[in-house]
Amino acid sequence: MYVLHFLNLAIQLIFFFKLVQIYAWKKTTAALIFGCYFFNYFVLKNCGYEIFQTDAFANTIFLVSFYFLQRQKFLQAISISFLGILTWPTVTYTIWLLYFFKDPFPQDAPRLKLHTGKTLSVALPLLSVGAVALLYVLHKQPLLESMLFIPASASLLFVGAVAWCFFLYVVLHGCDYHFHSPFTYIREFVRQSPWKKLAFVAIPFVVVSLYLRAHTNDEFYFSEVAFILQMFLRPLKYPLITPVAHICYFGILPLLVVFLFRNFSKEIFNCSPGYALAFLAFLFFAIDSEARHVIPLLPLILVPLGCVIDKMNLSVKAVASLLVLQLLLSHFYVPINVAGIEDAFENNDYYGVAQLYYMNFGPWMSFEFYIIWAFIVIIAALLVRFIIKRSKN
């Protein structure tokens, strides 16, 4: 396991620096993005506990495919993306989106009149509330409790929904991008002729999918409906559990995205129509408090974030301070293998001593550790904000 882990990590390091060379970032920017990518709980701690390393492999597959896309080596990018079907199919589909819609649309192409940021800040909480209401109407409270790992509380869910809506509005309202209409995407898909290359993608995809279904058991697949349902339910477990859990898992990265979101979103939407759709998919996975779901797509946000930070001219002292904070938030130094934890794992006791491990996965985080991490997040947010503002001055 460790041999595979370090081999995979070596590949990530190689292609990370290759990607940095494409964008020619300042050393300080490269150092900060490197820290966000590698100095977090997932890389420094969690990978040692993952037997099959599927998250880490998916991350590498996307990184390598993404790199070849940036180099306009499309054959290599698409070929490597097929490996994602064996780990995280989302990796494969996202690379295809970036490939099929890599060219800009005409400036007069029809767009939706909806304000993207404000629409999402209302729609996502409403979908969460709708999912809860549906389960109550169908008398499926046990299913709700099984997805939240706590007894269902209408008052707590209501507070969680209000807090979630407020947070999303604060973060997203500055994103005034207007997506192209679905008909525009269909028209440009035909006009730009990537449909002629669809066979290159579709035929191997069908072959691999049929092979997997023929040689794997039913547990290899999961219910897409249940997965989507839990994505909308989990942000309501505790107020703002999603940002708390993401910072617990990734450190300062979510804070940098939040504080720089206006310029960050502009950088994304200026890339390509495919990048805009891919980012929308990323946001869908990011609303889940189980932060590991966005691991395979991290390069998708690290590149535009790096481009924004590079224009800020952060000082060496500021970057060093942020990297120290990142290492502290990674909590790789907190031991997990303590007395009694094996018994807790065997008995599925999530909220005992096993919280040293399960606190890193939002849906399994106990209320006590949620309070602790919420306090840590507030302190970290104030520090990141202070360091950025002071460096600008």
> By helix and strand content, what is the structural category?
mainly alpha
The percent of residues in helical segments reads 55-70%
Q: Estimate the mean pLDDT confidence.
A: 88
Kindly estimate the percentage of residues that lie in beta strands according to DSSP.
under 5%
Q: Spell out the helices and strands N to C.
A: HHHHHHHHHHHHHHHHHHHHH
The main β sheet shows up as: none
Number of E strands: 0
| Rg from Cα | 21 Å
How far is it from the N-terminal to the C-terminal residue, by CA? 47 Å
Quick one: overall form? globular
Total helices: the number is 21
Sequence stretches where pLDDT stays below 50 over 5 or more residues: none
Structural overview:
This protein has 393 residues and is mostly helical. Helix content is 67%, strand content 0%. The protein contains 21 helices and no strands. The chain has helices spanning 2-23, 27-38, 41-44, 54-70, 74-81, 89-100, 116-137, 141-148, 154-172, 182-191, 198-215, 224-233, 241-250, 253-259, 261-269, 273-286, 298-310, 316-329, 341-346, 355-358, 367-392. The longest helix has 26 residues, at 367-392. The radius of gyration is 21 Å and the shape is globular. The chain starts with a helix and ends with a helix. The mean pLDDT is 88.
Could you give a quick summary of the protein structure above?
Helix 5 runs antiparallel to helix 6 (89-100). It contains 21 helices and no strands.
